[in-house]
Amino acid sequence: MQFPGAALFIDIYGFTSLSKQLTAQGAAGIEQISILLNTYFDRMLSAIDRMGGEVVQFAGDALLAVWTVDPDEHSLEEAVLSAARCGLLLQRQLHDREMLPGLLLSLRMSIGAGDIESALVGGLDNEWELALAGEALSQIRACSAYAQAGRVLLSPEARALIGKRYPSELTEAGSAFFSEEKHDELESDTKQDEGAILPDTVQATQVDWSAELRLITVLFVKFTQPANQLDIGQLQPATIAIQQAMKLHGGTIHKISHDDKGSAFIAALGLPAHTHENDAFRAVRAALAMQEQLKEQGLGHRIGISTGLVFYGSIGNAVKREYTMLGDAMNLAARLMQHAPEQEIRCDAVTREAAGGGVWFREEAPVMLKGLKEPQPLFTPLGLTGEARSSGQTLVGREPEIAELRQRLDLLAQGSGSYVSLIGEAGIGKSHLLQFVQREATARDMTVLRGAADAAEQLTPYYPWRSIFHALLRLDALPEEEDAKLLAVLDTIRRSAPDLEHLAPLLTPVLPFAIADNAWTKPMTGQIRADNAHALMVRLLGQFAGEKRAVIVLDDGHWADSSSWSLLLQAAGALPQALLIVASRPESEQVEAGEQASLQLPSALTLRLAELSRDESLALIADRLGVERLPDEVGAFILSKSEGHPFFSEELAYAMRDSGVLEIRDGQCRVLRNLDELSDVHFPTTIQGIVRSRIDRLPQEEQLVLKVASVIGRIFTYSALDGTMPVAGGGEKLLALLETLTEANLTLREPSDTELTYLFKHVITQEVSYNLLLHSQRKQLHGTLASWYESQYSDLSPYFGLLAYHWSKAEETDKTAYYLERVGLQAQRTGAYQEAVGAFTALVGGEAFAESSASMAKWRRMLGEAYMGIGDMANASDQLCAALTLYGRPPASTPGRFKRDIARQAARQLLHRVIPERLVGPFSQSRRELLLEQSRCYWRLAEIAFFVNKPGDNLYHTLHGLNLAERAGISPELAQISSNMCVTAGIMSLHKLAKAYINQSLRTMNQIEELSAEAWVRMNISLYFTGTAQWRESMDYSGRAMDIYEKMGNRRYWEACSYLMVKALAYHHADFPASTALAAKIYESGRLSGNAQAKSWGLLAQAENAIYNDKPPEALRLLSEAEALIPIHIGLTEEIRLHNLLALVHLRAGGLDEAKRYARQGLTLTNQSAATTYYSFDGYAALAETLIDLWQQESGDRSESRSAMDEAIGILRRFAKTFPIALPRLHACEGAIAWHEGDRDRARKLWKRSLQYARKLDMPYEASRTEAIMWQLDGRSS
């Protein structure tokens, strides 16, 4: 865009020297810089705005403003006059103002007139830069050398426009100073502002706490072609090249600066969110990259790079505000840019040193640069050396462990992965071994993916895996824009796991951004969500390991959440081409459980680290002190205290050195105290004491840094530390303190491509530092840190656990409760049930958390569901009942009340059936949600009652939940619990009522269109139809439910639906091979998920099919495996089936005694249970058949066996009243009894009835079985 106008450039004269003096004052000086600059700019911005101008850009301690010309309102002459009048007004107000005692500032101004061009250039990741050019700016640059403090300089063109009206003082170049003679037009404005002249003392309340000193590397890039000749067609690709280079290397463009020297790109590394441990190295690499691109574009340029401390903070006021950088490094980079030959780069000595050995530099002859007293050494970067940097201390001892780890790396090189567990106490050397693995693997061109758990993140699902997937998905190399990252991640999934693309949202816990749920993942919760997440994560890990020889390392496993351990062990079993290593302390329950699970892995190896030997300990101490050998008495003293513990030995040696007992000089160790007195020197006798003694010797500032860092965690970033420090003083001072702590071996620099990161060398150092804080200090720091996190991230979901932890330590109950609830919900949704139990237990255990009984009730319901997730039905039931009690609905505690409650709820349900318009009340949304919340409690209790085979409780809770859900209106809860009632009505043989509930559940399902509800409804309807032998309907409904659950990855309910299909295939089609194959899949699914009940379903169904096919040995093998699952609580129904089937199989195999034993146990268990599941049929029938045969074979008194047989037939008869599928077998058994009693006619009538039912119910196997009995006993068939 091009327009005529006047341009005013204002430079705060004297600010550079002023900022140098203030910077030397430390934190107080930083405050003053922010105050001074903002106060000065506030005055200038306000005046420019009031007099019709617009500030288009700040340029360090200067600004550029324009007055545009609107031909319909005023002329270019009037625009120049307005700019001149504004400049003169500001000079009169601000010239030689004593801002602070002895510190004077003034202004230099230049005005140009003519065409002004502006354009937005760049656009990479939607980041645009403002570029300005044109005649007006060229005039300012041409005459700026003649500008003077306290005066307003007009370019020749500007003077020509207003010189006739206002006399001016000419310069030799034709420019002129606007007259200092007072003009009437200025009198009113000057007087108006007299009362607002800057005060002599600036108030502290004006401090901008965001201002700070930062160690940055700055790049100035200037094009050698004159700005007025540089068109947008050239500037646009050049800007893109600079943006790409800075993005790639972790930096950012600060601005395109327009000042009296011209225009230049200013870019930097070291600004917030762009700070790394090797910023200078990255900056030089970025400069070399942009140099190459600009050369290809044929664009002349010069680049200057400087590293140093700068002021970084916001400047301006409500009219315009932006961040700026000020300091010697800025000035030096600009001077280096001006001095550089065309197409070349010049660096200062600090940048060259900080870049290290990774860049080839050519040293140039020192030169004098403007504003500097001494000649400056210059360096030209020529390219990268490729030199690798290494850090870490020498690994001493551990030869057996090193040999084992090398062998595992050798196997990986040959394509075979494995699982290694390093277990040892704190400080025993686990981290050093992990560093060895990383170095060794890198040297072998293997890829290492490393993650670490954290004490403060124990409730955060998958926390240690975040950095692993961050590296695997190469998130650092992607653009910063979230949409671009999202597309890149989705593309990776599409290429690596196309069949799992719909599961992409499940990666959210390991990503720095959220992927919104879709129709498939939205209904996934709990174990279903966890199983699917693991499937996708393992597939991505497997794809990566298949392409590269991958070493996956997880440190501090004792702090990892259960989801992380589950994923680790699943990955270990599924990734044959990856080496997985986890390092842990031995005392964790998770570690012990992981060790037990890893025993199933054929390639698992556990390395338990013991103390070092005497020689190894002495070698370690000598290495850490940097000496060839230790005096014998020193070694003996340390070993007597440390007993071979590496970290203890090391810290004790440091403590002796720091306290002056030892002197280290020229590689030799000398004892400065009398050797006889050495044993009397008091040293702490614990590791914690040693560390504390070292911290006590640090200066106060360094101690404070350690203490604040300890609140953040073992690993801490510079920005989090800087944001939490209770006193000002970041920037170079804080970096220097951190460097000192690193040199003292208390902290280490952690490699990171995203942010400057440190870690405590050992967690004990963190713990000791934290324990030195007073309670009040901890509260304040935890609160400050939590607030910092809340202010830094728009999406806080990855930090819920961390925020709950810090707010709890800050004793902020409302915020703690807020985040704990979200931690619990997040954990439950991802299947991390142990963590969900922990979060909700904390909530229900803290009475101060609950704002109301409704909140506490909701938390107890959530805790109950979490207990269900881990299979603890007793605690789950207790919590759900407690929730209902808090809602004012305590479950019945006596048999009498239990019956009255059922009668009352049944009557209410009958009323709902008769007068459906009274179902839904005119409830508010909050009241409706309360009803649904209560309904959920009953629904879960009904589910528990079904699985523990308590039909009375099932009916009680289902009626309550259904009545509440119907009052609340259409909802997934209503659809699901209506389908539950369909099954319950069927069990009660109320088939007309069951069909009414089928219709209600289907109608509601179609209105809500929610997949999980649809699958649940279809599964329950199929369950009802199977029990009533409506095979086509049953298979249709179960088939659709199976498809939904399989797509959702809901393994638990897929297994249940598939079991319906297994029995339909057997009972209806007599397709035993297909039924057996599907049962085997159910077994395998249960094995993978650890669901013992599903495993038992698969085994029992296969055994029943083997019995049908007359294969007793195969059936016995399967049943024996199922019997081993009984201690895992597979359920009473499964135990009954198992005992009864074992009785029949042993009888057919000739094991009469075993048959009798299992039959007695089966009969006892069967009498303890009501018939609630159709698939119990085979077990009930097996018991009856076994006892008939035992009665028939009895030679003596048969009264006892007759009684047992009659009891079994009575049980089967009652079962058949509920589930008609048992009728053919019942009458076949009754016919056999009649035959053996000699009543042949009755036997034939019963067999005929059996055949009629078998054909009516379309059960071909039952028909053929009855005919076989008839042939065997009667010698004829039907």
From TrEMBL:
<dbReference type="InterPro" id="IPR027417">
    <property type="entry name" value="P-loop_NTPase"/>
</dbReference>
<dbReference type="InterPro" id="IPR019734">
    <property type="entry name" value="TPR_rpt"/>
</dbReference>
<feature type="domain" description="Guanylate cyclase">
    <location>
        <begin position="262"/>
        <end position="337"/>
    </location>
</feature>
<dbReference type="InterPro" id="IPR001054">
    <property type="entry name" value="A/G_cyclase"/>
</dbReference>
<dbReference type="GO" id="GO:0005524">
    <property type="term" value="F:ATP binding"/>
</dbReference>
<dbReference type="GO" id="GO:0009190">
    <property type="term" value="P:cyclic nucleotide biosynthetic process"/>
</dbReference>
<dbReference type="GO" id="GO:0005737">
    <property type="term" value="C:cytoplasm"/>
</dbReference>
<dbReference type="Pfam" id="PF00211">
    <property type="entry name" value="Guanylate_cyc"/>
</dbReference>
<feature type="domain" description="Guanylate cyclase">
    <location>
        <begin position="6"/>
        <end position="122"/>
    </location>
</feature>
<dbReference type="InterPro" id="IPR011990">
    <property type="entry name" value="TPR-like_helical_dom_sf"/>
</dbReference>
<dbReference type="InterPro" id="IPR041664">
    <property type="entry name" value="AAA_16"/>
</dbReference>
<dbReference type="GO" id="GO:0035556">
    <property type="term" value="P:intracellular signal transduction"/>
</dbReference>
<protein>
    <submittedName>
        <fullName>Adenylate/guanylate cyclase family protein</fullName>
    </submittedName>
</protein>
<dbReference type="Pfam" id="PF13191">
    <property type="entry name" value="AAA_16"/>
</dbReference>
<keyword id="KW-0547">Nucleotide-binding</keyword>
<dbReference type="InterPro" id="IPR029787">
    <property type="entry name" value="Nucleotide_cyclase"/>
</dbReference>
<dbReference type="GO" id="GO:0004016">
    <property type="term" value="F:adenylate cyclase activity"/>
</dbReference>
<keyword id="KW-0067">ATP-binding</keyword>
